[in-house]
Design brief:
529 residues; globular; mainly alpha
Length: 529
């Protein structure tokens, strides 16, 4: 098995995430132009339902697998690694079969529940993906627990490529042959299902080779029943918290649509169009946190391994490094989305004045929410690695309830309507992060990472970068006739300014560099001690 350090693993996953997001942009932006905002709303509705089942299968069990496998590896018990994988596969398959069957049989009822009856085809086309994602998750948990992030990364790229070519191709063909936007959205989402199948086949081949090596190693495995109970004791609270938040989001999406049509008085078509704009902005909001997930995936086995052997110093080093790297990635992305909301939406979707009046304030609020979302992901993973799986559950559920209450109140105000929804999201993540920080201080005491202090320099650099991007967009807007030039020029300047500030302020430490290959050389280049 090829093992990586915390930052090496995070870097491999982040590279794969970058590739996947580029492919995703090549997929979703043309898709929105092919099927329109209405069709994109159907597409996203199917994803909202899928996300609940996806969270049930992927939120808790891979984390539990990663912790248990990492602990067994630190103790040299290879037989228990095989037992953990076998136990998790049984659980995953059960969830996958039930989830796929439910989406297929109840596709029309689920679409009606979500107030978008035409989304039924998308829901049905996505249903088989649930089963294959469960199989994929068992493989990924197996490798990630051994700090080998390469198979996960490669499989993610395979999924994205299938989604791009098969999804776009199917959407175009179906729309051309039938003229039915609902069926075209279902064709687009079929690429996701095919991608999951291809990814599962690849990981199956890699697992067969790795398991052959483990079979030759020693150790004593616990009984299967005891392993399943330990697995579920870790996984169930995490899954309940994550799935509970997804279910709240699902109910929240229904409430938003109901408020738009009821309290505000929009027609179904007008509400679908507004939700399509909101969903596209939400796609951009979900982009920066996707680069934090590799860090959270990588720190869990790393922290667990150090805690198993009692190395508190290395544990704290990894935690603070994770906070610093997360801030370096998440803060500038959030600030950039907020200050460049208008040129970004014009460049990516070609929105006119009427659509921008809705989309710009949504994306600006989402930009601020990105910062809190990234930190929530990191603090959740840190507590889970320390064995506290209940607190993140409760904090997320409280945040989700806050979101529903705020959205119900604000979306029903005609002057705000759909703009109230991202404000609810922002309030949700502020609440969760505040509760997480209080809980971590109580739980870890003197060993608690200095999160707020670590954030100070990246936040200052991000704010200066944001000011530079805003000024550049304003100046370029006066001399350039193309919005694309304005947007890309402002982003390019922002990147240069931010890179200079990171080096000048010495935000990256020597300890961070030493977690990477050739860290001594990198530290010398960056002049950090």
């Amino acid at each position: 098995m090829k093992r990586q350090s915390f930052l090496q693993g995070a870097a491999i996953l982040a590279l794969a995430t970058a590739i996947v997001k580029v492919i995703g942009a090549l997929y979703k932006i043309p898709l929105g132009n092919i099927i329109g905002d209405d069709g994109y709303g159907y597409f996203t509705t199917a994803y909202d339902i899928y996300s609940v089942l996806l969270t049930i299968s992927t939120a808790g069990l891979p984390v539990a697998m990663s912790r248990m496998i990492s602990e067994s590896l630190a103790l040299g018990n290879h037989a228990q690694i095989r037992r953990v994988y076998k136990a998790s596969l049984y659980v995953f398959l059960t969830i996958g079969i039930v989830g796929t069957g439910g989406m297929l049989l109840l596709c029309r009822q689920l679409a009606e529940f979500m107030e978008q009856p035409n989304a039924w085809a998308s829901i049905a086309a996505l249903a088989p993906a649930v089963l294959f994602v469960c199989v994929i998750s068992s493989y990924r948990g197996f490798f990630q627990g051994q700090s080998n992030m390469t198979p996960t990364s490669v499989s993610q790229v395979f999924e994205a490529l299938c989604k791009l070519f098969i999804g776009l191709g199917a959407a175009w063909v179906v729309l051309d042959r039938t003229g039915d936007v609902a069926l075209a959205a279902g064709g687009a989402i079929l690429g996701v299902t095919v991608g999951c199948i291809v990814s599962a086949l690849y990981l199956g081949v890699k697992h067969r080779k790795a398991s052959a090596y483990l079979s030759a190693q020693g150790g004593e495995a616990k009984p299967l029943g005891a392993t399943v109970r330990q697995l579920l004791a870790i996984a169930v609270p995490i899954t309940i918290g994550a799935a509970g938040l997804q279910i709240i989001n699902l109910v929240d999406a229904k409430i938003v649509m109901a408020q738009l049509k009821g309290a505000v008085g929009f027609t179904q078509t007008e509400a679908d169009n507004l939700k399509g704009i909101y969903n596209f902005c939400q796609t951009l909001f979900n982009l920066p946190p996707a680069f934090i997930v590799p860090i959270t995936v990588s720190i869990i086995p790393s922290i667990t391994s150090y805690l198993t052997v009692g190395d508190r110093k290395s544990t704290l080093l990894v935690e603070e490094s994770a906070v610093r790297i997360s801030a370096l990635l998440g803060l500038p992305c959030g600030v950039g989305l907020a200050v460049l909301a208008e040129p970004i939406l014009v460049m990516l979707r070609g929105y006119g004045p009427e659509q921008l009046a809705t989309g710009v304030p949504i994306l600006m609020v989402f930009g601020v929410a990105v910062i809190f979302n990234c930190l929530v992901l990191l603090t959740n993973a840190t507590m889970q690695a320390h064995g506290n799986v209940t607190t993140p559950l409760l904090d997320m559920l409280i945040g989700g309830i806050v979101k529903v209450i705020v959205n119900y109140a604000l979306v029903g105000i005609p002057s705000l309507n759909i703009v109230g929804a991202p404000i609810g999201t922002l309030c949700c993540y502020i609440t969760i992060l505040s509760l997480n920080l209080i809980s971590m201080r109580r739980m870890l005491r003197d060993d608690c990472p200095r999160i707020l202090r670590t954030l100070a320099k990246p936040l200052a650099a991000s704010l200066v970068m944001g000011a530079a991007a805003w000024a550049a967009a304003g100046l370029l807007g006066r001399v350039a006739s193309s919005n694309t030039i304005v947007c890309l020029g402002a982003i390019a300047l922002a990147c240069v300014v931010y890179a200079i500030l990171v080096v000048a302020m010495r935000i990256v430490t020597r300890e961070d560099c030493m977690l990477l290959p050739k860290g001594e050389k990198l530290a010398k280049i960056l002049r950090v001690r």
